[in-house]
């Protein structure tokens, strides 16, 4: 495996700027099973 290349100036944005995306599929499955919480 080759060595990892040096960084080229990219900086990851702050985690505070990341948005939480609700898991609608899990909620729909829970409702289908009868768990409405």
Automatic annotation (TrEMBL):
Any one GO molecular function term: kinase activity
Biased composition (Basic and acidic residues): 1-14
Alphabetical UniProt keywords: Kinase, Transferase
Domain of life where this protein originates: Bacteria
The UniProt record lists the keyword Transferase: yes
Region (Disordered): 1-23
Protein name, per record: Polyphosphate kinase 2
